[in-house]
Design brief:
Elements: E1 6-7, E2 10-14, H1 22-39, E3 43-54, E4 57-68, E5 74-82, H2 90-103, E6 107-112, H3 118-126, E7 129-136, E8 162-170, E9 173-179, H4 185-198
Parallel strand pairs: 5-6, 6-7
Antiparallel strand pairs: 1-2, 3-4, 4-5, 7-8, 8-9
Length: about 200
């Protein structure tokens, strides 16, 4: 990510939330999930603003996804799209994790337009919740002059308008992997781990 757009206090986060309409945000997330499922040879059934039922009642979920592996085994994923001016906090990950347990879902994903607090990343990593920040694609374009301010990428750079950065808490700090329309490997890898749960 271009240094000008990073928060110096938490460089895995953007300084400001990306400007994206909520509908565009959720449609983009759904597209990435569908492409990841295709690449992983999984069948996907996704419901925007779906309802997941648990013993504690019904929960409205931004995107309720069912993946089916070729052998017919099915697993559920709850997807939260946080389109807010604040970073996702540990409490947000706790709420999603409690919904996962109550509805018997296998995993969860939080997509955020503002990034994640370190405590949220650490908690999510221990619970198998993927964390993805959505940023403007041009933020990925870096030059040696990046410290002097933002640099508009040239047309030949062909960056998607919006990209995701899967961020995860690791022993050495925070790791990050880019997601765009052509490269959903960071989600594909995560889906591969899901397949192990029902395989």
């Amino acid at each position: 990510m271009n240094l000008h757009y990073r928060d110096p206090e938490s460089p895995w986060n953007p300084c400001m939330p990306v400007e994206i309409a909520p509908e565009t945000f959720e449609k983009l997330v759904l597209d990435w999930l569908k492409r990841s499922a295709e690449q992983s040879s999984l069948r996907i059934e996704a419901k925007h603003l779906g309802v997941a039922k648990g013993s504690g009642g019904e929960y409205k979920i931004d995107i309720f996804v069912k993946f089916t592996v070729l052998g017919g085994a099915e697993f559920k994923v709850l997807v939260e799209c946080k389109h807010k001016g604040r970073r996702v906090e540990r409490a947000d990950a706790l709420v999603l994790e409690s919904k996962l347990r109550d509805v018997g879902a296998h995993k969860g994903v939080i997509f955020s337009t503002s990034g994640f607090q370190k405590g949220a990343l650490k908690y999510a990593a221990t619970r198998g919740i993927a964390t993805v920040t959505v940023i403007a694609g041009k933020w990925l374009y870096e030059t040696r002059a990046a410290l002097e301010g933002p640099v508009e990428p040239p047309p030949w750079a062909r960056l998607d308008e919006f990209v995701g950065v899967r961020v995860a808490s690791v022993a050495e700090g925070v790791s990050s992997h880019t997601i765009d329309v052509s490269h959903t490997d960071a989600l594909v890898e995560w889906l591969g781990h899901l397949g192990e749960l029902v395989g």
